[in-house]
Amino acid sequence: MARPKEFKEIILDIEDGIATLTLHRPEKMNAFTGTMMHEMIEAFDITDADDSVRAVIVTGSGDRAFCAGADLSAGAETFDYDERAKSGEAGRTESTDIQRDGGGRVTLRIFDSLKPVIGAINGAAVGIGVTMQLPMDIRIAADTARFGFVFNRRGINPEAASSWFLPRLVGISQALEWCYSGRVFPAQEAMEGGLVRSIHPQADLMDVARGIAREIADNTAAVSTTLTRQMMWRMLGASHPMEAHIVDSAAIYSRGKTADAKEGVMSFLEKRKPVYPVKVSDGMPNFFPWWEEPEFKWIGGKD
């Protein structure tokens, strides 16, 4: 198992194609801080740049909490960014008078991940502890996990771009019920509401998460998986299916000419495990990232 860097408040392990990012403040129930924010963003930069990484699992240290929300040690000034800026704890961005929400910086970084992200929710997950999960692709929970969009009970509001993510994941009515009430609810309700895929005994949680990651790592082409992730997420905001059709067409045309497509067909015909040669670092099709070109219109054959 490799640790590409030693962090203060997270642990990043990489082994056999799977990265595990562990929130690591067990004495504080893995409460979220500015340091954790910066380290999580850096960890996703590392996993994106490492072609050996095929999937990322995010979990928490210990058996009590995934993340108990924001660290409240600043007391009444916890969410007063102007006051905290006076002591150097928070600062404004370079180009705006609006203080950017740290949770949103994390969720937007996860949203941009080039690798699939699996949340293994091992315990309490409230506030940013639940909203940071929303851009993860697959979420599984321990039977001891509890969830809460508690913001209205703290006199603030949902953050981390959750007003975009949550209704798309669970529907507007369920999203509003959880956010209006701010109540903490059990894993069973989270699963019934569509927030998590499945519930498992805590002792089995990481084995299940690794099994999901292993299925991806062993059987799929890395570039195809990266394209699929971004196509699915970004089409949630599309105004017409034609937008998806344009990108689908570009992707299937471009990928169909690659060594990966040939290997996918031949390994199937020869009844053997595929070995896909194209890497994310240098093998993404030339229209990627298409969303940075608002007027993108693919024309067949441009590759």
From TrEMBL:
Keywords: Lyase. It comes from the Bacteria. The keyword Lyase applies. Gene3D superfamilies: 2-enoyl-CoA Hydratase, Chain A, domain 1 (3.90.226.10), Lyase 2-enoyl-coa Hydratase, Chain A, domain 2 (1.10.12.10). InterPro entries: ClpP/crotonase-like_dom_sf, ECH/Chromodomain_protein, Enoyl-CoA_hydra/iso, Enoyl-CoA_hydra_C. It holds the Pfam family ECH_1. CDD domains: crotonase-like. GO terms for molecular function: enoyl-CoA hydratase activity. The keyword Metal-binding does not apply. Its EC number is 4.2.1.17. Belongs to the enoyl-CoA hydratase/isomerase family. This is Enoyl-CoA hydratase. It comes from Hyphomonas pacifica. The lineage of its organism: Bacteria, Pseudomonadati, Pseudomonadota, Alphaproteobacteria, Hyphomonadales.
